[in-house]
Amino acid sequence: MLLRVAGGALQSCAAFMVAAGMAWAAPVGAADYPANKPITMVLPFPAGGSVDAVARMLAAQMGKRLQTQVVVENVPGAGGVISTQRVVRAAPDGHTLLFTTPNHTINPAVIRNLAFDTEKDLAPVGLVAQIPELLVASGKQPFDDFKGFVDYARKNPGKLTYGSAGNGTLPHVTMELLLLKLGLSVVHVPYKGAAPALNDLLGGQIALKMDTVTTSQPHFASGRIKPLAIASASRSKLLPDVPTIAESGVPGYEGILWLGVLAPSATPRAVIDVLHRTMAEIGRDPSWAAQLEAAGVEPRTTTPKEFAKMISAEIAQWKDVVRRSRITIN
Question: Taking the model in full, what pTM does it have?
Answer without folding.
Answer: 0.87
